[in-house]
Amino acid sequence: MNILIVYAHPDPQSLNASLKDYAVRHLQAGGHTVQVSDLYAMEWNAILQADEIPERADHRADILREQEKLRWANTVIFQFPLWWFSMPAIMKGWVERVYTLGFGYGVGEHSDQRWGDRYGEGTLAGKRAMLLVTAGGWESHYSPRGINGAIDELLFPIHHGILFYPGMEVLPPFLLYRTGRMNEALFAEACARLGQRLDTLATTAPIPFRRQNDGDYDIPAMTLKATLAPGAQGFKAHLAQPPSLL
Ligand SMILES: Cc1cc2nc3c(=O)[nH]c(=O)nc-3n(C[C@H](O)[C@H](O)[C@H](O)COP(=O)(O)O)c2cc1C
């Protein structure tokens, strides 16, 4: 497979750098071709420019290179440390600039009957994506009743709004918590767990987000049909199976 790792960490000595190096080695040893977009090393310009907004889209060489990598990839891994409950700003800026009109959004025919190709369809349809995220907090802090909020909910805007929106199937994330207590044994354990996830990228069941154009939503309101998941609201409503069955 062709695998793209979009990677955001400024320090080549970090835990994230070690995990990224492990992932690249492991995937290459498995016969895959890997490209890494190392955003800090590339000095990625994360600031969307005035002449890149849709009406005046003037695609820059750096944007086109990243779009080409996305087209090339069968699977895309987004790796980052959780910073203030989300991705580092440099990666958000990568999304804002690379997902141009006609590439990341505004794809397909748009009418009152069909709201374009998005949420399961679009430029990146047929590809798989996975987040690889490290967090200082404990797993329990991110559990369904944890004080930080449930990790599935914190990651929903990335999973659903950034990965599923332009068409990718979204695999459950690889999460590494409590990074402050890392040592050699725990790192080896994390690599073993990560290796298993990398070995099953092609076969792991994706998160069952509802596809926009499969009939689950009223058009053009784009609300979930009243007969589906009655009572469910918010993020969970967009899962075709309730989380308890996952
Ligand atoms: C700016 C910043 C913001 C952070 N925000 C969070 C956070 O919201 N939740 C959390 O659990 N850890 C947070 N952390 C801790 C990092 O997630 C943790 O240090 C990182 O995952 C460890 O990996 P690294 O050694 O590769 O940086 C934050 C760290 C920094 C520097």
TrEMBL record:
One of its GO terms (cellular component) is cytosol. The keyword GTP-binding does not apply. GO terms for molecular function: NAD(P)H dehydrogenase (quinone) activity. Residues 1-198 form the Flavodoxin-like fold domain. The keyword Oxidoreductase applies. Keywords: Oxidoreductase. Belongs to the NAD(P)H dehydrogenase (quinone) family. PANTHER family: NAD P H OXIDOREDUCTASE-RELATED (PTHR10204), NAD(P)H DEHYDROGENASE [QUINONE] 1 ISOFORM 1 (PTHR10204:SF34). This is NAD(P)H dehydrogenase (Quinone). It comes from Duganella sacchari. The lineage of its organism: Bacteria, Pseudomonadati, Pseudomonadota, Betaproteobacteria, Burkholderiales.
